Amino acid sequence: MTDFSEDLRKTEAEPSRRRGRPAGDGGGSGGGDGVRSLSRALALLEDVAAHAEGVTLGDLAQRADLAPSTAHRLLKTLESRRYVTQDAERGLWFTGVQAFIVGTGFLRNRDMVGIARPFMYRAMEESGESVNLAILDGTETIYLSQVESRQMMRALAPPGGRAPLHASGVGKAMLAGLSPDAAGEKIKSLGFAKYTDKTVRNGVALLDDIARARSRAFAVDDEEHAVGLRCVASPVFNEYEEPVAAISISGPQARIPDERLPELGALIGRIAASITGAIGGKQPAGFGQG
User: Fold this and answer.
1) SS3 state of residue 225
2) pLDDT digits (tens, 9 = 90+) for 273-282
3) pLDDT digits (tens, 9 = 90+) for 125-175
4) End-to-end alpha carbon distance in the chain
5) DSSP sequence for 84-143
6) Domains of the chain: which residue ranges?
7) Whether domain 111-278 has CATH 3.30.450.40
8) pTM of the model
């Protein structure tokens, strides 16, 4: 089987040869061209994955700042390896089965979802609300799994969905799980986008918020990401006392009034501690001891 990066390098080399110059010319080696091509292909794949409804070649090329012909060659290489697939009739590109296989490899290695699911079901049964599992990705969190509430009106956080660190329960829980210095460094990189009138908009306020979360072992999203939605969340730690995930209970404000927050916070704190123990992790000394 041909090496994937070699496939990509060839797609970039073809137009160079047609113009009458060596493929490696232009200030880089063939290896450099291969790395550049691989980077471009991965950027296209990420863009395709971000659009569940499908995306056109023109839109992909424009966002990647590529000629449509170059984008098409890269997509065809990805398609040949089943990372993307095309609906030719509508002219749309979608994520392929191989991307799913590679993605689930991450979950198999950590087995976080498999370990957490029984605890998530328990939390859903005890709270009556949706329970979510998320991990950190830069300045955002990515949801890995959700156990939905049985209520007709419920919070939805599908796997692959993202939430900002400063305006979500799982995001603030992950920050609270970091050391104060590490959390402070992470907060410096946040943009503090406004989602509702309650969204935390500056680092000082967020530091105060996560200090409270660290003290009580759970963070609160009080309609900060979506109007009418409340959430309590707590981090899951690995064996090095590092936060590797966060678990949350979320639901409409009408069913999570102020007086219910301590009860649900204590519940999600216990569930997170149970998952931490199940993966062989350890909570940092003093966490939740405020």
Assistant:
1) coil
2) 999 999 889 9
3) 999 999 999 998 888 999 999 999 888 877 777 788 889 999 999 999 999
4) 57
5) EEEETTTTEEEE-HHHHHHHHHHHHHH-HHHHHHHHHHHHHHHHSSEEEEEEEETTEEEE
6) 4-100, 111-278
7) yes
8) 0.65
